[in-house]
Structure formats: structure tokens, C-alpha cells
């Protein structure tokens, strides 16, 4: 009897002690859609996580789970993380939107941050980067560089984020090259190197000499390299190992400053639900070095475009722009509002094919 | 739709490349299962083969050594499974699943230093004379050696199982291990050899991904190919040539649907994306149901442990 009491008492004391110790440290969780070594999207989120550790040192503890499927299993992973004492959880893929909202409702004291979504709650913030600003620069380079006038685009899922990128790239390629055509292939995956490589090969075999990708692995870069005269752009990460050819530039997501900011807010108790959508200006989207495979003149043009977007002088979606069916969307000089952009589900005029619904 | 923009010859040629990883893994698993062992660790052995093949291939600058290393690595990992299930009599399903998880983690660990490194060029073999035949030449006779090796393995497995004493013994062990034991065959030893063969083939399949098809190392790059190979074995009702048909059908439709998308085909993309899975299952099920005895093809002792005392 005595022994039981003693043991129970000790256990209680230990429990309190660990709880107290845990309170000193802010625990930050990350849910990743791919492996941290994908060289693209998840890799950059993990870099952000490492930056948080570096910045706060002992005051923070980070945990992460990689390759979490989008869907029911994501709820399990988040619940586990919340039960494990996480104070702040970043869920870093569009498909985690509903699971994040569901789990957040069960853990009102835990803060959630969902990347690229649009559903918020008192303890759920959303954040995203204006990748389409980078896509505008890519489209400009792609339109000038293509010789076959055929540009291949590997899409992941038909969601607003991806469609925005396609539209932005197309508008700016068309602007400098009226004959340009886009072939769009939907891979229905964020990460499957073999399938991404096959998609790139299919596009190249059909005459595309520029490959844009909105999937996470570097496989399309390898396929383009094998084919020879094809250029690509790094997606989400610099993918500099494929420079100077085929990778001539890239869009880099830099999440570190945002993550550090938000962790600080949790520590200070000032965290509240917000909607952040930053682009080239604040540095959340960076344009990777444009290599010498691009003529110097074109490089200067692209950099000027980047700088004018960054300075807020130019918006990639500036009218006149019509929708695919020919109806007017933006009048001359009119700029797209964030609401329409966030839910974009239509192609602009000139693109062929239908968006899978 | 502009079907003329599809280069059908190149498409049929890339079909064989797309199908080879699952073909190799599938035929290896077939041998394992015919010996009565269900190894669900194909995915884990494939990805381990992928990184070991890539690492050794890059370090030695030799694709052949890469493939040999991949086969050895796959076989070594499968021996872990063999030890646990054949000597320690652990549950095969659970052990196989654990092997997949272990392989994914192990490969990520080994692969730390190989992310973003360029792969090597694997030479394509132009078979003299045959490769000059119009149409058929580029489709069939201008591939890298592994494509032909995979077909030889399928043919070899078929001939061995059907015509040789060794094949008969292997099947006997899979159909009734007690009877095979009573006849004096070393059930555990034979099963271990079958498991090792399955592991080596899965390793080769993985290395084909990282050395030829993609070609680079990325964590988790098999992305479910091992599970497709496992399903293929069942739908092919444990017959080697049907695995070949199934794998080529699956690989072909995967490549075809991407080409149709790129050509702007007016069919909803969702249907195109699911077609490889649907058509492969349908065709193999119809083939297997013909004589109404498909269930007889499953090895009777599949997934059951053997111990000489029982």
C-alpha cells in the first residue's frame, strides 16, 4: 500500500516536473507533405524550421513529421503532435486545410498555421507566398528563350495556387512572344520523381523546349538535362545543382523570417489569427540567380521585372486581361484583387484545355 | 486534340522504360510468394536498392557495379526479413510492413550525401541489325541493358518454375511445406533463397529508377511502386508472363495518359490519371477468371510460418 502511494506520488511529482520543464520551451511542430530531402518545397520548409532552431536555441524545441498524406491521416499526425505538447503547429500543404481546421477545433489552446489555404479560425492562421510574382519573371524568360514556341507545364493539383502560377507565367510569356503555346500536364501528385520525369519526357517528346514545374522534386530537371536543349526553372528551392543548364533560374521560398516571427509571437503571447500573403518585396519569394545560359540583355529585363514587382510598381495581373472564354476580367490598368486571386479557378484567354474540376 | 503531336514510336519505347521497375520487383515477389512467403517489404527493398545502386554507381562511375550493389543490398535487407520470419517465426505481414518502413528510413539516412548529385549516363545498347528495322527497331531494340535483363529474368523464372526440378521443389514448398519437409527438403533454406531472390530483384527495380528512369536520388523516390508490384503479383495470379503483360500495360498507360494530356485530349484528366490502375486490374482479372480456377493459383501456404516440429 505504502509502496503504491509512494510510486504514485513520485510519478505525480515527475509529471509536474516535466510539465514545468516543458513550459520553459516553446514546442513547434511541422507537418510536411514530402520528405525533407525532396530538394524542393518541403526542403525549404525544413530550412525554415532549422532557422527557428538556430534563432531561438534552447528556448525552442521543434518536431516534424514528413511524408504525411493529405487527408484523414494528416488529422492523426496533427492530433498526435498537439497531444505531444506542441504550442504551435505549421501544416505546410494545401491539402491539410480541412484537417487543420478540424484538429484546431479540438485543441483551442494550440496555435495552428496553415500554408497556402484560405480557411481560418481563432487559433488558425494562414500564410502563403505570392509565387505568381516569380512565375511572371519565369514566363518572361521562357517566352523569350523558347525556339519551338512550345512550353510544357507540369501541374500538381488543379488548385488556385497552381492555376495562378500557370496564368501568370502564360500572360508574361505571351507578352514577349505572341506565338507561344502552353501544354499543361496534371501529375496529380506533389511528389513522385518517376512520374514527374515521365511527364517532363512526354512534354519534351512533343516539342516543348521549356519545362515549368509545380511539383516538388528535381526529377524534371534531370529529364531536361538528359534531353539536352531544354531549359527549366527551380521550383520552391534553388535547385542550383542543375545550373547553368537546364536550370536557368528559380523561385525560392524563404519561410525562415515568417517562422521566426510567428514563434516569437507565441512566446510573447501576442499571437493572433492572421492572413499573410507576401511576395518578392518582403523577401518571402526570391528569384534564384539567372545563369549565363540566358542572354545578358534578357537577364537584365528579367531582373528589372523582378525589381518592379518587388517595389510594388507593377502587378503581374494588370488589365486588360480576359478569361479563357473571352469574357472580360480586368479592364485596362485594373489590378486583380486578392480575393479573386486566392480562389482563382479559371484560365486566362489564350490557354487551351480545361481545368479539371 | 492533336494526336499527331504525339510521337507514337517514342511513346512505345518509353513504355518499356516506365514498366521495368515494377516488372523486376513483381517477378522477384512472385518467386518469394510461390515459395509460400508473403513479403510486404518490396517498397522498402526497392528504395534501399535505389540508393545503394545510385551511391555505388556514382562513386565507381559504373552502372553495372551500381546494379550489382543494388541487388546485394536488396537481398541483404530481405535476409533480415528472412531471419525474423523463418527462424524467429514472426508474423510475415507485420514484418513485411516493418521492412518497408525500415527501408524508407535507412535509404533516407544513406542518401543524405547524395541529394542533388547528378546520375550517370547509362549507355543504350543498339542491337546490330535489329535496331535498324523501321518502327520496331526504335521501340524494341534500342534500350539500356536492364530492360533486356528484366525480360530474361521473367523468362528464366517461367522456365525454372515450369520445367526444372528446382522449380518443382520451390512450388512444393509453397503448396505444402509439411509434405516437402517429409520428403526431406530443407523448407527454411529454400524459402530463404526465394526471399533473397525477391529482395535482389526489388533492389534492381529500385536501382533502375535511380540510375536510368529518373535518374537521380531523391528521398522516397519509389513513391508506391513497390505496392503496385505487390498488387501486380496477385492480379497476374502468380504467373510470370502475366506480370510482364501487367507491368507493360501499367507502364504504357501511365506514359500514354501523360502524352494525351500534353496533346490536349478532351477527356477529363481524372479519368486519364486513374486509367493505368483501372485497366491493368480489369485486364488481369478477366485473364485470370477465364477458367474459373484463379483461386487455385495462390500458393496454398502463402504467408504461413513453418517449423519442423509442427
From TrEMBL, chain A:
InterPro entries: ABC-Purine-Binding, Peripla_BP_I, PnrA-like. CDD domains: PBP1_BMP-like. It comes from the Bacteria. Residues 1-22 form the signal peptide. Residues 25-308 form the ABC transporter substrate-binding protein PnrA-like domain. Keywords: Signal. GO terms for cellular component: plasma membrane. The keyword Signal applies. PANTHER family: ABC TRANSPORTER SUBSTRATE-BINDING PROTEIN (PTHR43208:SF1). This is Nucleoside-binding protein.
TrEMBL record, chain B:
The chain crosses the membrane at residues 6-25, 37-58, 64-84, 96-115, 145-161, 192-211, 217-236, 243-263, 269-287. InterPro entries: ABC_transp_permease (IPR001851). GO terms for molecular function: transmembrane transporter activity. Pfam families: BPD_transp_2. It is found in: Cell membrane. Keywords: Cell membrane, Membrane, Transmembrane, Transmembrane helix. It is a multi-pass membrane protein. Coiled coil: none annotated. One of its GO terms (cellular component) is plasma membrane. Its main location: membrane. This is Nucleoside ABC transporter membrane protein. It comes from Aliiruegeria haliotis.
Amino acid at each position: 500500500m505504502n509502496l503504491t502511494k509512494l510510486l504514485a506520488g513520485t510519478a505525480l511529482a515527475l509529471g509536474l516536473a516535466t510539465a514545468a520543464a516543458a513550459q520553459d520551451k516553446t514546442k513547434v511542430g511541422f507537418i510536411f507533405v514530402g520528405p525533407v530531402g525532396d530538394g524542393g518545397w518541403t526542403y525549404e520548409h525544413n530550412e525554415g524550421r532549422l532557422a527557428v532552431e538556430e534563432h531561438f536555441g534552447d528556448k525552442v524545441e521543434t518536431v516534424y513529421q514528413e511524408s504525411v498524406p493529405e487527408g484523414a491521416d494528416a488529422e492523426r499526425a496533427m492530433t498526435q503532435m498537439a497531444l505531444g505538447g506542441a504550442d504551435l503547429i505549421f501544416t505546410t500543404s494545401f491539402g491539410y486545410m480541412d484537417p487543420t481546421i478540424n484538429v484546431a477545433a479540438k485543441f483551442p489552446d494550440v496555435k495552428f498555421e496553415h500554408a497556402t489555404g484560405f480557411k481560418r479560425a481563432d487559433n488558425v492562421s494562414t500564410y502563403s507566398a505570392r509565387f505568381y510574382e516569380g512565375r511572371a519573371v519565369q514566363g518572361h524568360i521562357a517566352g523569350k528563350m523558347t525556339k519551338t514556341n512550345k512550353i510544357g507545364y507540369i501541374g500538381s493539383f488543379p488548385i488556385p495556387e497552381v492555376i495562378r502560377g500557370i496564368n501568370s507565367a502564360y500572360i508574361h510569356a505571351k507578352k514577349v512572344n505572341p506565338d507561344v503555346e502552353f501544354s499543361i500536364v496534371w501529375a496529380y501528385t506533389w511528389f513522385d520523381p518517376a512520374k514527374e520525369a515521365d511527364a517532363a519526357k512526354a512534354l519534351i517528346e512533343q516539342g516543348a523546349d521549356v519545362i515549368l514545374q509545380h511539383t516538388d522534386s528535381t526529377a524534371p530537371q534531370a529529364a531536361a538535362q538528359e534531353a539536352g536543349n531544354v531549359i527549366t526553372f527551380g521550383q520552391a528551392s534553388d535547385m542550383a545543382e542543375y545550373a547553368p543548364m537546364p536550370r536557368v533560374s528559380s523561385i525560392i521560398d524563404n519561410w525562415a523570417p515568417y517562422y521566426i516571427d510567428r514563434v516569437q509571437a507565441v512566446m510573447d503571447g501576442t499571437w493572433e489569427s492572421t492572413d499573410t500573403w507576401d511576395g518578392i518585396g518582403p523577401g518571402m519569394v526570391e528569384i534564384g540567380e539567372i545563369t549565363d545560359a540566358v542572354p545578358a540583355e534578357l537577364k537584365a529585363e528579367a531582373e528589372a521585372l523582378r525589381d518592379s514587382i518587388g517595389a510594388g510598381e507593377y502587378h503581374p495581373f494588370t488589365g486588360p486581361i480576359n478569361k479563357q472564354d473571352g469574357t472580360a476580367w480586368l479592364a485596362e490598368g485594373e489590378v486583380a484583387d486578392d480575393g479573386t486571386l486566392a480562389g482563382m479557378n479559371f484560365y486566362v484567354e489564350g490557354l487551351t484545355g480545361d481545368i479539371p474540376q | 486534340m492533336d494526336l499527331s503531336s504525339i510521337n507514337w514510336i517514342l511513346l512505345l519505347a518509353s513504355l518499356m522504360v516506365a514498366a521495368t521497375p515494377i516488372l523486376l520487383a513483381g517477378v522477384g515477389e512472385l518467386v518469394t510468394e510461390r515459395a509460400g512467403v508473403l513479403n510486404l517489404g518490396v517498397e522498402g527493398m526497392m528504395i534501399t536498392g535505389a540508393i545503394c545502386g545510385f551511391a555505388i554507381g556514382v562513386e565507381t562511375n559504373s552502372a553495372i557495379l551500381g546494379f550489382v550493389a543494388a541487388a546485394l543490398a536488396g537481398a541483404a535487407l530481405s535476409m533480415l526479413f528472412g531471419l525474423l520470419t523463418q527462424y524467429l517465426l514472426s508474423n510475415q505481414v507485420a514484418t513485411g510492413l516493418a521492412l518497408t518502413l525500415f527501408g524508407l528510413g535507412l535509404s533516407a539516412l544513406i542518401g543524405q550525401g547524395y541529394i542533388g548529385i547528378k546520375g550517370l549516363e547509362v549507355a543504350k545498347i543498339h542491337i546490330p541489325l535489329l535496331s535498324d528495322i523501321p518502327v520496331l527497331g526504335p521501340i524494341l531494340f534500342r534500350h539500356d541493358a536492364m530492360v533486356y535483363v528484366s525480360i530474361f529474368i521473367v523468362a528464366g523464372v517461367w522456365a525454372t518454375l515450369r520445367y526444372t526440378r528446382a522449380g518443382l521443389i520451390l512450388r512444393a514448398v509453397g503448396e505444402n511445406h509439411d509434405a516437402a519437409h517429409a520428403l526431406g527438403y530443407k523448407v527454411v533454406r529454400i524459402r530463404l533463397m526465394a526471399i533473397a531472390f525477391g529482395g535482389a530483384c526489388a533492389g534492381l527495380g529500385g536501382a533502375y529508377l535511380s540510375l536510368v528512369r529518373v535518374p537521380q536520388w531523391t528521398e522516397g523516390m519509389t513513391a508506391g511502386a513497390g505496392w503496385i508490384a505487390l498488387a501486380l503479383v496477385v492480379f497476374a495470379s502468380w504467373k510470370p508472363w502475366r506480370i510482364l503483360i501487367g507491368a507493360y500495360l501499367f507502364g504504357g498507360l501511365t506514359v500514354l495518359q501523360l502524352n494525351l494530356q500534353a496533346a490536349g485530349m478532351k477527356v477529363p484528366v481524372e479519368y486519364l490519371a486513374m486509367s493505368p490502375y483501372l485497366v491493368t486490374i480489369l485486364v488481369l482479372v478477366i485473364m485470370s477468371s477465364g477458367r474459373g480456377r484463379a483461386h487455385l493459383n495462390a500458393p496454398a501456404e502463402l504467408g504461413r510460418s513453418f517449423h519442423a516440429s509442427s
